[in-house]
Amino acid sequence: MQKVIAEDSFRDLFQFLIRLSSDSSSLIDLANEIELNKPPFYINETQQKLISVTAEDLGIDKASCFYPKFITYIEVFENRNLSIGIFAMSKGSAFPIHDHPHMIGITYLIFGEISLINRDIISINSSGIVTTRVLKEEVAVGPQIFYLTANSGNLHEIHAHEDSLILDIFLPSYSEDERPCTYYKEIRPNLLIRYNPNLFFRNMQYLGKTFN
């Protein structure tokens, strides 16, 4: 009986995200809630559905998912409007500063401890140097949920202080043509340049409960 309930809640979460990702007015409302502290209707709805998700629901086996110095990626679902993925960040691994162009991001830290820095872009000069300001810098212990939008905290970096499991949701998805991911490094405080990091990534198949 517990498995049926869990899978029903997963379908409920998935259907909510599908509806949200395909409704531009709802996405605008969600962005306004995040950026302007509007009454949090969509934030509350999202948190209520996400907070019950466990590592076991996602089919996570810690012994196989966490590999020293690597980030393991598990794709759960992806279409043009929505992507759902799992990142198993081993202790000491990190995502360098990167962007999420024209996207809303929902990051659910299920367990673990990370440091998270979100930045806003202030300007980009003719040489491609990006001036930013730090919007938020914190050390977080799961479970916690974080948000970013196209206009607020869109650049972020994540460092894992211990093995940490993250469920990432993006509305819409990355796209090589329209919404590519760009990485940056800091050359002086709050000044960034583009670069191509050497990331230690590996992929695994999703073995968790069904969403659809």
Automatic annotation (TrEMBL):
Keyword Metal-binding: yes
UniProtKB keywords: Iron, Metal-binding, Oxidoreductase
Top-rank taxon: Eukaryota
Keyword Iron belongs to the record: yes
GO terms assigned for molecular function: metal ion binding; oxidoreductase activity, acting on single donors with incorporation of molecular oxygen, incorporation of two atoms of oxygen
Pfam families noted in UniProt: PCO_ADO (PF07847)
Segments forming a coiled coil: none
Protein's recorded name: Cysteine dioxygenase
Organism: Blepharisma stoltei
